[in-house]
Amino acid sequence: MSIPVPPYIEAIRPYVPGKPVQEVERELGLKGTVKMASNENPLGPSPKAVEAVRAFLGDLHIYPEGSGFYLCQALARCFGVEAGNVVLGNGSVELVEMSARAYLNREAGAVYSAGSFAMYPIACQVVDAPQKAVPMRGRNHDLDALLAALDERTRLLILDNPINPTGRYVPRGELEAFLERVPPNVLVILDEAYKEFVKAPDYGSVMPLLSRFPNLLVLGTFSKAYGLAGLRVGYGVAGREVTQTLHKVRSPFNTTSAAQVAAMAALEDVEFVARGVALNARELPRLAAGCESLGLTVTPSVANFVLVDFPEDANDTFQALLREGVIVRPMKGNGYPRSLRVSVHTPEGNDRFLEAARKILGR
Asked: Is the pTM of this model over 0.90?
């Protein structure tokens, strides 16, 4: 028996995550593999978060607090907003999916930059919404082109800042001027998953602009700087009208109790976040310079990864590095046919990648 699937679902190319270390070592018979594919924290999870989860384990039989009340309160204090302005997600990507379910349909569509985070088009396609993928300029958002792409059917405008996978960013002042030009009936989703790593003086979160722009939803995550990718907890901050709408389509108990207590503890672990940010600030330019010394082109990045252009097909280069025990992320499916996204690791991990790259390039 074949159950009919709607054509727009059948056409979806599923998101392909970074390969796990265990899978690679099992398939290739390797040991000591280093993963630099998913922009995870090379220092591991926040120690305070680990302690909080251990203390909580005896309550695993109890359902989570549905809306994450206490975590929303903690985030609200951090950002100077009310708890009602915060909504949680199973990772920040779920908030993109919730927004698509809440605002999009066959007559209401979305605009985003082509070659940005791969889940944006998938979230739109799941609800059969029209979508426009606007070409970037210099691997950065083309703000004028994005504005020109808006029409009477546009309901969502999705931008990541910094951009995954290019690592480039839009300065805060330019974003503010951009937001002033977006029609009020278009919800702007600003995905700031990598904001903690940015050292550029003209970068800034748009969170303080929420009071001026009721059509703004700002996303953040605990997966990167806080080291909690395995617990899947993200957040969105917006005006009450937006958060109340998102709650209507939010699955019950969409963040686990363990994730909520870990995130609350991680928010207090300032020293851990500072160590991770400092490590990234030292290793990001060293990794980029090492790639350039091999004759590779590196897109300037402010995040915790670099987009590196290799001479050969990205998938072939990815496989060659796998055989050397280094997992990176091929970006061919995102529109970068020869590019790999390489996460910043420890000094030892970065050296391992550079040596593997040198070997497969024959240099």
From this structure: yes
